[in-house]
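Reply to dn_fold:

You asked what the input looked like. This is it:
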Amino acid sequence: MLFLPFTTRASSGYFADFKSLIPYLENEDWKYTFKHAGALLEANPNDSSEMHAMMVYIRLFSGAGLVSQKKMSFKKLQVAILPLVGQKVMMSAHPYVKGEGCGLNCTGFEKDSLQWKAFTAAANQAGTSILCMEHFELRKAPLPYKEKTFIRCGGILQGIELNPNESTIWILRLTVSDAFVRTTQ
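and this is what came back:
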């Protein structure tokens, strides 16, 4: 359910490979997805397309899924994903929800004194683990989206924090700078 609205306007040489991962994501087959996303990223290291940015996110998300199922250690995940810092990343689409504390698998906005920010808590299907807490430092104010519109955020992956307690309540905290928001239509 999380990746159903994962469509793109960009075309890339490995779009068919990307599409082939969707059923594995929907079935939460994290091992297969993590391995193949990593292979695609390694095969296309200089790709700057949106497809590559989505593959970066799929690698992060599926790795967190493996840790949540105790099929990978936090340490092993850290080694595998830290090289992704500094790359473009594009998250899965989620419905926009107004107000604070929007819940799991939705995106909300807030403005501190200087900057607009967006936040998503992307969880597994059962809602038992937050795989990625996603914090976006937006480059401009978001459009006035209609509530429950599916939106996608992306930008530069500025930082990755792994849960220091190694609890599976939450696995990763991602910080994305120079971020943007747009609808999936």
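The CA atoms of residues 162 and 172 lie 5 Å apart.
Hope that clears it up.
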